[in-house]
Design goal:
With 346 residues, this protein is of the alpha+beta class. The chain folds into three domains: 3-129, Beta-Lactamase (2-Layer Sandwich); 149-263, 2-Layer Sandwich (Beta-Lactamase); 274-345, 434 Repressor (Amino-terminal Domain) (Orthogonal Bundle), CATH 1.10.260.40. The chain has 13 helices and 13 strands.
Length: 346
């Protein structure tokens, strides 16, 4: 695991590893000169936020002299020259040596002018501590199904479904059965139709969604919402599916929750399904030009044109930046049961 993996982790896990002193983040806005460090970043560097002011150059100065060249200098950063990923050695003020994985992201204007720099850092010195934090997150996810019947899953290229073991426990099936055929959890009269539609959408690399009834080991029948979404690499390679299941009322509203449960990996996969016509519709609702979207998302105008012409790969980072900018402006991309994506303004 490195800093890049943090972008797909849950908020709970991110807070946990920050509390452990294993991660932190920073932000630097060039126009105002404002710099912000998270509490975890101060702890990771061994600095007191009541005494030290957040400065990117201070972070670089704390690195081992041989490793400083792996990160851009302050003058290089403001000119738009940034090293996206690096693994460096940090020397804390007390002399302790730590190994850090660093992920940096530069935001630019529509004209390509650097606007800001954001970064996250993960302490990878002690892999065992990180493994323990990941194990705690896994236990939390597993316990979630016992208490709320909510679970995430993945389907790899080997066509094996990966569910928490608690899913099998709740439904009175073996985990091996569910890995091969998760539709065994459905009531018999709905099983064949959902299985056929699910595999059809999988083979077509399209999103699947439905609300079947499932039988628990206790005999109780519960209505669930199932979501499965194809996942693509930044290079446009198909990687499989990620998905989620959670109980709903007969109306389809999430049972016992105010809104739909969210998972970072699933949300990211759903955003990959946003296409050019969705972006144009969103801009229309906001009365934005392509240049406005480019500026809000830190993208070039030519990149926005490629996105709207569907010339960018489905897993391209530019797509996430555009969708994030539109979400922040009040746009919602809503997944419909028929596979379509509705665009609305809040």
């Amino acid at each position: 695991m490195d800093a890049a993996d943090l972008t797909s982790c849950s908020d709970v896990f991110l807070r946990t590893i920050e509390d452990y002193g294993l991660a932190g983040g920073w932000h630097w806005t060039f126009t105002s000169g404002e710099q912000r460090w998270s509490p975890g970043f101060f702890r990771l560097l061994g600095l007191d936020p009541s005494v030290v002011t957040a400065r990117y150059d201070l972070f670089v100065e704390l690195l081992h002299p041989d490793d400083r060249v792996q990160l851009a200098s302050p003058s290089e950063v403001v000119q738009g020259h940034v090293s996206p990923r690096a693994t460096v050695r940090l020397i804390r003020p007390g002399g302790e040596l730590r190994v850090l994985s660093v992920l940096s992201e530069l935001r630019v204007s529509a004209e390509g002018r650097p606007l800001s720099l954001s970064g996250v850092v993960l302490d990878v010195t002690d892999r065992e501590r990180l493994r323990q934090a990941q194990a705690a997150e896994q236990r939390r996810r597993q316990a979630l199904y016992l208490t709320s019947y909510t679970a995430t899953y993945s389907l790899g290229l080997d066509l094996v479904h990966h569910f928490p073991a608690e899913v099998a426990q709740v439904h009175g099936l073996s985990l091996e059965e569910i890995q091969v055929d998760p539709f065994l959890m459905l009531v018999p009269e709905e099983r064949a139709a959902f299985r056929n539609r699910g595999w059809e959408m999988h083979d077509r690399h399209m999103r699947f969604q439905g609300m079947p009834r499932e039988r628990l080991a206790s005999g109780e029948v519960v209505k669930f919402r199932l979501v499965g979404v194809p996942v693509w690499s930044a290079a446009g390679e198909y990687r499989g599916w990620t998905g989620m299941k959670y109980p709903v009322h007969e109306s389809g509203a999430p049972a016992g929750r105010a809104d739909t449960p969210e998972d970072p990996a699933l949300r990211r996969a759903l955003e990959q399904a946003v296409r050019g016509h969705h972006l144009r519709a969103a801009r229309g609702l906001l009365d934005w030009s392509m240049a406005t979207l480019a500026a809000a998302g830190g993208l070039s105008l030519s990149t926005v044109r490629r996105l709207e012409d569907n010339l960018e790969g489905q897993g391209a980072r530019s797509r996430y930046k555009a969708v994030t900018a539109l979400r922040q402006a009040g746009i919602r991309f809503i997944a419909m049961d028929d596979g379509a994506i509705a665009v609305a303004r809040v």
